[in-house]
Specification:
The structure holds 2 protein chains of 2 kinds.
Chain A: E1 5-10, E2 31-32, E3 36-37, H1 39-48, E4 53-57, H2 62-69, E5 83-87, H3 102-108, H4 110-115, E6 120-125, E7 128-130, H5 134-143, E8 148-154, E9 164-168, E10 174-179, E11 188-197, H6 198-207, H7 216-226, E12 231-235, E13 240-242, H8 246-258, E14 283-285, E15 290-292, E16 294-296, E17 301-302, E18 305-307, E19 310-311, E20 316-317, E21 322-324, E22 327-328, E23 333-334, E24 339-345, E25 350-351, E26 355-365, H9 370-373, E27 375-376
Parallel strand pairs in A: 1-4, 1-6, 4-5, 8-12, 14-17, 15-18, 16-19, 17-20, 18-21, 19-22, 20-23, 21-24, 22-24, 23-25, 24-26
Antiparallel strand pairs in A: 2-3, 6-11, 7-13, 8-11, 9-10, 26-27
Chain B: E1 7-13, E2 32-33, E3 37-38, H1 39-49, E4 54-59, H2 64-70, E5 84-87, H3 103-107, H4 110-115, E6 120-125, E7 128-130, H5 134-143, E8 148-153, E9 158-165, H6 166-174, H7 184-190, E10 196-201, E11 205-207, H8 211-220, H9 224-230, E12 247-249, E13 254-260, E14 265-266, E15 269-275, E16 280-281, E17 286-288, E18 291-292, E19 297-298, E20 303-305, E21 307-309, E22 314-315, E23 320-322, E24 329-330, E25 336-337, E26 344-348, H10 360-371, E27 378-384, H11 387-393, E28 398-407, E29 410-421, E30 424-430, H12 446-459, E31 470-474, H13 481-486, E32 495-500, E33 508-510, H14 512-517, E34 528-530, H15 531-538, E35 541-544, H16 547-552, H17 556-559, H18 563-568, E36 573-575, H19 601-616, E37 625-633, H20 639-650, E38 655-663, H21 665-677, E39 682-686, H22 693-699, E40 702-705, H23 715-721, E41 725-729, H24 732-737, E42 751-753, H25 758-774, H26 776-788, H27 793-807
Parallel strand pairs in B: 1-4, 1-6, 4-5, 8-10, 12-14, 13-15, 14-16, 15-17, 15-18, 16-19, 17-20, 18-21, 19-22, 20-23, 21-24, 22-25, 26-27, 26-31, 27-30, 31-32, 32-35, 35-36, 37-38, 37-40, 38-39, 40-41, 41-42
Antiparallel strand pairs in B: 2-3, 6-9, 7-11, 8-9, 28-29, 29-30, 33-34
Helix pairs in contact in B: 19-22, 20-21, 20-25
Classes of the chains: A alpha/beta, B alpha/beta.
Chain lengths: 378, 808
């Protein structure tokens, strides 16, 4: 079945900078904003952009992610002639095909692209929080007669060294691309979202030695620019965050908490964000409970005090416990009289009675580091 | 245990219940429950959790919202290649509500039952909230070697849930027209040859039949042990997947004992309440003891207490709603609740108690008028000044002003008088030419009289102390007022509402009256104008005097020539049950032999009964079964079937029959023949003043009303107050006030039969008789239940008031 556009989501590496949070979970399956997983945003964008074929390229702890996405029905991606495909490492006749980088992974699964004879390939990450209509990016790509288009966003001056920094000419053609430069020449950062003409992408990936064209940002895009191909820049102006670190995960949760209309999450109009229903009853606040300036997901029971925090599903907060400025991931149990401040509580943690952890900087509290981080008041 | 694949399920969603406005847009199964669910989610989840893969739903009436919710059934694993979920719609659109799904209804879809391959079937209801494994019930059914197992709760309440073999069920379905049972309830109660088994379900279970049940069950979820019995993590409740953010709390939120669904935004105070998906409680708003459904908005500073707010209700800033558990404030979907303080209501009618009365209409107008001030409403009434009123009330009538009204090229002088009583202001329109006559109606120029009245009444609006917000007209007499108001620049903002007390009286006159009124832009298309029809098309809202009569008026059998008008106004058409004056009853009745109340009913009724038998010349005896009727003797009142049933009724040896009434000679003759045939057992009192009706209400054992139709009916309400058990046909207000006695659950206050058919009448009559003769304890309980029913006028006044507020 021929399609105009297929998407490939690169789930990528181990996400070590998220510490214990990703110890047994692929980054896109990490919880965000009480009821979401990071992947919800990208999958919802695809559904809202009418992209019917999605390949999810994964190799690290894929179980939870696969389990969550299933056939993609929650995002209306369970199409008869397309839908969600998981592209996992496999053993070929010669060797096991571990992915070495983003471009390397795409090359490995190029059969997937060929199957749908698509004209364009959209390369995405699974751990970004944003709402984008990819059809608009495609229109830009076609309008600029580009071989490749890179989505980019203005970032703060202090930040640029974290990103791939883009230089453009007056017509938005990219003339310079530097990955994580020490002395950035602009504040226009690549969002890690790439759109290619399928034919040109195939030629690019086959054009050089495999070992050199491993990563889109590091190798493929700079190579294309160097060889004079038309690489265009699509400027994105709305909210976007790459959640790669503990700090950014915490900050993104606080963004959501502080903006009552964050990404219009409660509206079914204008690119709605879907997530999978977990068949949980609504949460309940009991007679000793108190909740202020917070968001709470289904299945939780609150009998303690919650201030300025995000509380994920199936969380229990017992009497006289106090949770402030925290990001609580799913299935957490906070026992009586526990006090938590500035903490990201990893999923499934049981916080003991009278436990106290009041941190200045956000820290990840895990079952494994309970004793190191906090103390139990006697 | 048997394999799970041995069960299929029939979901009875035919029950309409009595949900007032909550079911205007949906059937009960689709009612929102537990902040994020619909009632049917529980039944379907039980089905999924019991491994049942073949389900048929039989819906009542408007099932769009249910079909939309269920979709392909995939949320309950019911979107399947083999079997799956089937919504089997009624083939006969004239079906009315029943207690339970009938075999006739199943017969319409007999192929489904013939094709299903499972050996056993669960027949259950769509309005149950519980978490049950039907395989456990099946196991019990098999262990007990039963033919039929009924599931009940710990209190013995029937849950409309049965297990039986497909073969047995099929035999009832295929023979539905030959057997004596209409549904599973009747089979369980009366089929003699079956091995019957009762399975008692011991966990939390709620059967939702009215808004109070819904509210109570919702509130019960706030108790943790109930919640954990309904929401079992191993047997989750599945529902349609929706899109919303997590619940969000503002910095000033104050929440205790609340269930809050996702997408809800809480900025104000919420205590002991359920807040539905995407509902918003603004800063400074307070929600107490209430069920707030999806997407409601409670504005800043608003107060909501003891309420059930249907989806998308908007409570405007500062508005206040006060209900309580026994008198819930219920809104309709998308209702806007404004501050209704000092709402000005003008009722216009041809008669009003205590001034003049020929029918129940006058009671309703008068009762509402004096109850409104207590609800904060400025209450006004306007009616013609008949000679009778003028004579009797001359000393009290205060002249307000005079005006000249042009009608048909003539100028007529009219005057406005008023009397203030109990906080209500009664206005009287005087016209020498039209109303200064001995009778109220029955003149050749009635059309002109009431067309003139409409114009004169509007002419006096300017002379009232305040211009009304709502003009509430009753029956056909003021029927042209909405038409005239629509064309009156001055009164554009006035909202009009029509109450139809009986569709038989319509007011038909020559179209000349339209010309005489000087209505310029009116297309006269017929030589006649029908006052009621004009009001039906022009009033802002339509009501009638009971919810069931409202439903019945959707059928030509009841609505007759006005069927089109009623169907067209369906959206704005409501049924509000009349109340009964609190003063009526045996406690204060000085005209009966012995006053009594619920505690002293046994003695009181015995004395009154003996007295009745004595004065009427019936055979005396406590164990005789005295049947009373106080009625107009007319076709409407069911005399056709009564006369056919009389011999069967009198065949029961202890039956005695006493009737007070006046009317149609045709039936009077028939009745007289029976009086001669059964001397000392039948006594007729023909003529309205020939006996004291209260002596019958107090002294009879049962009160018979086999009406063909009955918009509301007061006889049965009075009888209930006197502990006299009504035997009625299931129509109109009779259906809304009488509940058939269930000997198992000890619920109910009377006996109802469904078909307008002598055989059905006799059948229910025999049930009543047998209970009286053989089950004294049950009968006493029945009398106790009957006397506990109230029908307060306040409830009816509040219902009207709430409807008014939806119009502003």
């Amino acid at each position: 079945m021929k399609k105009t556009l297929v998407a490939m989501i690169l789930v990528g590496g181990k996400g070590t900078r998220l510490k214990e949070i990703t110890k047994d979970t692929a980054k896109p399956a990490v919880s965000f904003g009480a009821k979401y997983r990071l992947i919800d945003f990208t999958l919802s964008n695809l559904a809202n952009s009418n992209v019917e074929v999605v390949g999810i390229v994964t190799q690290y702890e894929p179980y939870e992610l696969m389990n969550y996405i299933g056939a993609g029905a929650s995002w209306d991606l369970d199409n008869i002639d397309g839908g969600v495909r998981f592209l996992t490492p496999y053993a070929s006749a010669e060797n096991v095909m571990w992915q070495k980088g983003t471009a390397h992974a795409v090359r490995q699964y190029f059969n997937f692209v060929r199957e749908f004879q698509s004209d364009y390939v959209l390369i995405l990450s699974g751990d970004h929080i944003y709402k984008m209509d990819y059809q608009k990016m495609l229109a830009h790509h076609i309008g600029h007669q580009a071989v490749a288009t890179v989505a980019a966003i203005e970032v703060d001056w202090e930040d640029p060294s974290r990103y791939g920094i883009i230089e453009t000419d007056a017509k938005d053609r990219i003339v310079g691309f530097e990955e994580k430069p020490e002395h950035p020449k602009s504040t226009l950062a690549s969002m890690g979202i790439y759109l290619f003409n399928t034919r040109d992408l195939e030629r690019l990936l086959d054009g050089g030695p495999q070992d050199e064209l491993v990563d889109f940002g590091k190798n493929v895009i700079p190579h294309a620019i160097r060889t004079g191909l038309a690489v265009s820049c699509y400027r994105f102006k709305d909210y976007w965050r790459d959640v790669g670190t503990v700090e950014s995960l915490y900050a993104a949760n606080m963004d959501m908490l502080n903006d009552p209309d964050f990404l219009g999450l409660n509206s079914s109009k204008n690119l709605p964000v879907y997530s999978k229903s977990l068949n949980l009853p609504p949460h309940v606040v009991l007679s000793s409970g108190s909740v202020k300036s917070s968001v709470i997901a289904d299945g939780s029971v609150i009998d303690g005090s919650v201030v300025h925090s995000t509380i994920s599903y199936r969380t229990v907060i017992m009497k006289n416990a106090r949770v402030e400025d925290c990001v609580v991931l799913p299935d957490v149990f906070v026992s009586e009289n526990a006090v938590l401040r500035h903490v990201i509580v990893n999923k499934g943690v049981i916080v003991p009675e009278n436990y106290r952890l009041e941190s200045e900087e956000p820290v990840v509290l895990d079952q494994s580091n309970l004793k190191e981080l906090g103390e139990i008041d006697e | 245990m048997r394999s799970m694949n041995d069960l299929f399920m029939v979901v009875d969603a035919t029950s309409k219940g009595n949900f007032a406005q909550l079911t205007r847009h949906r059937m009960p199964g689709a009612l929102p429950f537990g902040a994020k669910y619909r009632l049917v989610d529980f039944t379907l989840s039980n089905c999924k959790n019991s491994g049942i893969k073949n389900v048929a739903i039989f819906p009542y009436g408007n099932y769009r919202s249910l079909a939309d919710h269920i979709g392909s059934g995939e949320r309950w694993d019911l979107s399947r290649r083999k079997d799956g979920i089937f919504i089997l719609q009624p083939k006969n659109l004239n079906l009315t509500y029943e207690d339970a799904i009938s075999f006739q209804r199943m017969y319409e879809h007999q192929e489904y039952f013939l094709r299903s391959t499972q050996e056993f079937v669960v027949v259950t209801s769509a309005n149950l909230v519980w978490n049950i494994d039907f395989n456990v019930v099946l196991h019990d059914h098999l262990m007990k070697k039963a033919d039929l197992t009924e599931v009940r709760d710990v209190d013995g309440k029937r849950l409309n849930t049965f297990i039986l073999s497909r073969k047995t069920l099929l035999s009832y379905i295929l023979d539905y027209d030959a057997i004596n049972f209409r549904n599973m309830l009747e089979v369980f109660d009366y089929a003699p040859e079956l091995v019957k088994n009762t399975y008692v379900f011991e966990s939390a279970c709620f059967m939702i039949e009215n808004p109070k049940d819904l509210y109570d069950a919702d509130m019960a979820l706030l108790e943790l042990d109930v919640k954990s019995q309904i929401f079992n993590p191993n047997r989750p409740v599945y529902s349609k997947e929706t899109m919303s953010s997590p619940s969000r709390y503002g910095p000033d939120a104050e929440v205790k004992n609340a269930i809050v669904a996702s997408g809800a935004v809480i900025e104000g105070v919420v205590y002991n309440s359920l807040i539905g998906r995407k509902a918003v409680v603004r800063k400074g708003a307070t929600v107490l003891d209430s069920v707030v459904m999806n997407q409601c908005v409670i504005g800043e500073g608003a107060v909501v207490k003891g309420a059930v707010l249907d989806k998308e209700t908007v409570v405007l800033p500062g508005a206040e709603i006060f209900g309580d558990a026994d008198d819930l404030f219920i809104t309709e979907k998308k209702q806007i609740v404004a501050n209704d303080e000092n709402l000005k209501v003008l009722q216009i009618a041809a008669e009003c108690q205590p001034f003049v009365k020929t029918g129940g209409l006058a009671d309703v107008v008068g009762a509402l008028a004096v109850h409104y001030p207590g609800l904060g409403v400025r209450s006004h009434v306007m009616m013609p000044l008949y000679a009778k009123i003028k004579e009797k009330y001359q000393l009290f009538l205060e002249n307000v002003c005079d005006q000249i009204v042009a009608y048909g090229g003539e100028n007529y002088k009219t005057s406005l008088y008023r009397i203030t009583d109990n906080g209500a202001v009664f206005h009287f329109v005087e016209s020498y030419d039209f109303f200064d006559r001995p009778n109220l109606y029955g003149y050749a120029d009635d059309g002109d009289r009431f067309a003139f009245f409409a114009k004169a009444a509007i002419g006096f609006f300017g002379a009232l102390d305040e211009v009304p917000d709502i003009v509430h007209i009753h029956d056909w007499h003021p029927g042209l007022i909405p038409l005239l108001l629509k064309r009156d620049e001055r009164y554009r903002n006035i909202k009009t509402i029509l109450t139809v007390h009986n569709v038989e009286y319509q007011g038909v006159a020559s179209s000349d009256v339209i010309r005489k009124l000087g209505v310029a832009d009116y297309q006269i298309t017929s030589p006649h104008v029908n006052f009621l029809e004009s009001a039906l098309y022009n009033a802002g809202r339509i009501t009638t005097v009971s919810p069931t009569y409202r439903d019945e008026l959707h059928y030509e059998y009841y609505a007759k020539n006005l069927i089109e008008a009623f169907l067209r106004r369906d959206r704005d058409f409501y049924g509000i049950l009349n109340g009964l004056d609190a003063a009526i009853g045996p406690e204060n009745d000085l005209t009966i032999r012995k006053r009594y109340d619920a505690q002293t009913a046994a003695t009181g009724k015995r004395i009154c009964k003996a007295h009745l038998q004595q004065t009427m010349g019936l055979f005396e005896g406590e164990r005789r079964f005295v049947v009373g009727m106080v009625t107009r003797i007319a076709e409407q009142k069911g005399f056709d079937i009564l006369l056919s049933a009389m011999d069967d009724i009198m065949a029961l040896p202890e039956v005695e029959f006493v009737l007070l009434g006046t009317g149609d000679d045709r039936y009077v003759e028939g009745l007289r023949a029976f009086e001669r045939k059964y001397p000392g057992r039948i006594r007729l009192n023909i003529g309205y003043d020939s006996a004291n009706p209260n002596a019958i209400y107090a002294g009879a054992d049962v009160f018979l009303m086999p009406s063909r139709f009955e918009p509301c009916g007061t006889g049965q309400m009075i009888a209930l107050r006197y502990g006299t058990i009504p035997i009625v046909r299931q129509t109109g207000g009779l259906n809304d006030t009488v509940e058939t006695f269930d000997a198992v659950a000890k619920r109910g206050n009377g006996f109802k039969f469904y078909n307008y058919d002598a055989r059905d009448l006799v059948y229910q009559f025999q049930n009543a008789y047998n209970l009286f003769v053989h089950r004294k304890d049950d009968w006493d309980r029945l009398v106790e239940n009957a006397m506990a029913v109230r029908f307060p006028v306040e409830a009816s006044a509040k219902a009207y008031l709430r409807l008014y507020t939806t119009m502003l």
